[in-house]
Amino acid sequence: DAGVIQSPRHEVTEMGQEVTLRCKPISGHNSLFWYRQTMMRGLELLIYFNNNVPIDDSGMPEDRFSAKMPNASFSTLKIQPSEPRDSAVYFCASSPSIAEVGKLFFGSGTQLSVL
Amino acid sequence: KQEVTQIPAALSVPEGENLVLNCSFTDSAIYNLQWFRQDPGKGLTSLLLIQSSQREQTSGRLNASLDKSSGRSTLYIAASQPGDSATYLCAVRTGNTPLVFGKGTRLSVIA
Q1: How far apart are CA A21 and CA A77, in angstroms?
Q2: What does the pLDDT average to over B4-14?
Q3: What value does the mean pLDDT take over residues A54-70?
Q4: Inter-chain contact B100–A104, Cβ cutoff 8 Å?
Q5: Where are the beta strands (DSSP E) in A1-115?
Q6: In chain B, which residues have their Cβ closer than 8 Å to the Cβ of A47?
């Protein structure tokens, strides 16, 4: 298995632009998580899905952030409009189920820079 | 709300030394605790998982202990090697909530 695949690896954009981050979870995994990592705040959970349904989005910082999971093999995290303070590494992770977080696999992340 | 703290934030040791990384959490009613490794520019890789009923787990040169009542865990690395240089993160799961992570300890092992 190729693992969790995220794209793009790096994204540089200007303030006000729309940014879309993509994630393909491991085949057969039913739970998907979006995290954001910064030096100041560490790794923060933004939102997670179970069986394509959003379970908890309380970590989404503002309405500018939205996430979708249209099917079991694809998820997007969108920021519109982007701001410099959104600059961070965004990670996607998947696990076979919510209960099996001991089997949590991370993608390599998307490094986002908003100028 | 569960909070996870890791001390120190950074650590530099000579090759061959044994070392201990510390993790503390505020809510002792945890379901399990995990230690992860993160290499620069990469995602996280799970190293050890300790269930709340366990006191320790071992994998090779790594040993993780858990003292739930005091809200503490340690990761012991024996005979450190330059390849151990990475950031080590501690994460806890409380009930049905997803993992809450510490900010990590950045380890440098000097040859």
Answers
A1: 5
A2: 95
A3: 93
A4: no
A5: 5-7, 10-13, 19-24, 31-38, 42-50, 53-56, 65-71, 74-79, 88-95, 105-106, 110-114
A6: none
